[in-house]
Specification:
Layout: H1 7-18, E1 27-29, E2 31-33, E3 39-41, E4 57-62, E5 67-72, E6 74-80, E7 84-85, E8 93-105, H2 109-126, E9 129-138, E10 143-154, E11 158-165, E12 168-182, E13 191-197, E14 208-210, E15 214-227, H3 237-240, E16 243-259, H4 264-274, E17 282-289, E18 291-292, E19 298-299, E20 306-317, E21 327-334
Parallel strand pairs: 1-6
Antiparallel strand pairs: 2-3, 4-5, 6-8, 7-8, 8-12, 9-10, 10-12, 11-12, 13-14, 13-17, 15-16, 16-21, 17-20, 18-19, 20-21
């Protein structure tokens, strides 16, 4: 049986990430429907109203200490879009938008502040992140464990509207998460870069990790053409009259596009883009790429790594516009030294 990416697995992934917050606040999937008054319809769990009719507080019991307690959780609703699937049979990748609403008890100031901080922490964790998520695909005679590669970003939080449920005041907070999910396609997030600058005495400085907006590289060839007109020795007369090309020289280049930031190496390269040094500076550039196997194990394959000594080549500073971020592009070519 062939499986593609499922929306229900995305909902489970989001619920898992909400429940890994550092505040220890539990989240449960559900939604509230106002039909006929105070009816509560739940997607992922069956609520048990306690003796005061509360649906967001559950009784806990410790079998070792015999202690009973009550613990509040937050009810969340995850609305996952239908998904934009790649229209190729051998490429399993889809993009989703999830609108998430969280019902937060508003009558306890301490609980409200803590819940707000936990939601902000969770939202921040989705911005520019990548994850590996394990799911189960159930066949008729087996259960297969597969892994989704998920890249996420998130929008701002709407701190919401007030509602009254069973005489208690709640706030509905919400934000949006965008997810790109794949089973067999790698993402740019898996490529990692480190750059170090050579000092004037020839020693190499400290490598600094950088995250470019765009990174690209390529090889150029300078060709030398030659024609061999020797029809007497060659049985293929037409081929003997062809021009044959030989590689005379090769060049390797790298280009990065960066936001100007306080990252030490990026700041140095940005300064050199306008204050052109007397001698072209030398840099060492490392590239490696994270890959996952079918069992979810990660590694950095040696054939996808390189370290190159490069000379500062071409700089293309973008227009500096007030109110807009500073972006610049820098090119490197391999040094002969």
């Amino acid at each position: 049986m062939r499986f593609n990416i499922k929306q229900t697995n995305i909902m489970e992934f989001l619920t898992d990430k909400f429940n890994t917050n550092s505040f220890g606040i539990p989240f449960k999937q559900g939604f509230y429907a106002s039909e006929g008054g105070n009816d509560l319809n739940i997607v992922w769990y069956k609520p048990k109203l306690n003796d005061k009719g509360l649906f967001d507080i559950e009784d806990t019991y410790n079998s070792e200490t015999y202690a009973s307690n009550k613990k509040r959780f937050l009810v969340m609703q995850t609305d996952v879009s239908s998904g934009d699937y790649v229209g190729l049979p051998d490429i399993e990748m889809a993009s989703y938008t999830s609108n998430i609403e969280i019902m937060v008890y508003a009558e306890d100031p301490l609980s409200l502040i803590t819940s707000k901080m936990a939601i902000e922490e969770i939202r921040d964790s989705f911005i520019g992140s990548q994850y590996l998520h394990q799911v189960e695909e159930k066949n008729l005679d087996s259960i297969d464990e597969v892994y989704y590669k998920i890249v996420t970003t998130a929008g701002g939080i709407d701190y919401g509207s007030e509602i009254i449920l069973k005489g208690r005041k709640f706030l509905i907070m919400s934000f949006q998460v965008d997810l790109t999910v794949s089973k067999n396609v790698d993402f740019g997030n898996q490529v990692e870069w480190e750059i170090a600058k050579y000092n004037t005495d020839g020693t190499l400085g400290t490598y600094v990790e950088v995250v470019p907006l765009i990174s690209s590289w390529g090889v150029s060839h300078e060709m030398m053409s030659q024609q061999t007109l020797n029809s007497l020795n060659l049985t293929n007369v037409a081929k003997s009259r062809e021009v044959h090309n030989y590689v005379k020289s090769r060049g390797f280049g790298l280009t990065f596009t960066f936001f100007k930031s306080n990252n030490s190496i990026i700041r140095t390269m940005y300064a050199e883009s306008s204050n052109v040094p007397e001698l072209p500076p030398l840099y060492s550039i490392k590239k490696k790429e994270l890959e996952y196997d079918a069992s979810g194990n990660s590694s950095y394959p040696s054939d996808l790594q390189f370290t190159k000594k490069c000379v500062y080549g071409e700089v293309a500073p973008a227009d500096i516009i007030y109110g807009e971020p500073i972006i610049f592009a820098i090119g490197f070519v391999v040094s002969s030294k």
